[in-house]
Design brief:
Elements (H helix, E strand, L loop, with lengths): L1 E12 L8 H12 L4 E2 L3 E13 L3 E2 L6 E12 L10 E6 L2 E5 L7 E4 L7 E4 L4 E4 L3
Antiparallel strand pairs: 1-5, 2-3, 3-5, 4-5, 6-7, 7-8, 9-10
């Protein structure tokens, strides 16, 4: 469910943060940029993991007062495996599908009606999806 992935990115440290230790400033910028963002082919980024593994010397770009560093760092990513079972709570049930919460960090999972286990149907009286084997 959770994996560590290694990322290389050019991180900009703004001019007003150049007085701070370079590693601390880079960690702060990574922590601002990546958490709660979905990276294509990786998953939902939860947080940075540990220190930067590699940092280049800062480069200046004309017209920009900040420094730019190539950084190699690791991120904790939420990426469920195919057919992995995740336990959650049903938050809302409608004829269109159900909304599920995985607890502490992910509340917006929507499972549309066409992905429901077959044979299941929506029961208007109960307001729930019911699996009814024939």
């Amino acid at each position: 469910m959770f994996i560590l992935t290694t990322v290389v990115d050019r991180i900009r440290v703004p001019a007003h943060k150049l007085q701070v230790n370079t590693l601390t400033a880079l960690h702060n910028e990574i922590d601002l940029k990546y958490p709660n963002r979905v990276l294509m082919n990786f998953g939902l980024v939860i947080c940075r993991y540990g220190d930067c593994l590699k940092i280049t010397n800062g480069a200046c770009v004309p017209g920009d007062g900040g420094s730019h560093h190539e950084c190699l760092f690791r991120l904790v990513v939420f990426r469920p495996f195919v057919e992995e079972v995740c336990v959650g709570k049903i938050v809302k049930s409608t004829p269109e599908g159900i909304q599920v919460s995985l607890g502490g960090f992910y509340h917006d999972i929507f499972i549309p009606a066409y992905w429901m286990l077959r044979p299941s149907r929506y029961n208007d009286k109960l307001g729930l999806w019911v699996w009814s084997p024939d």
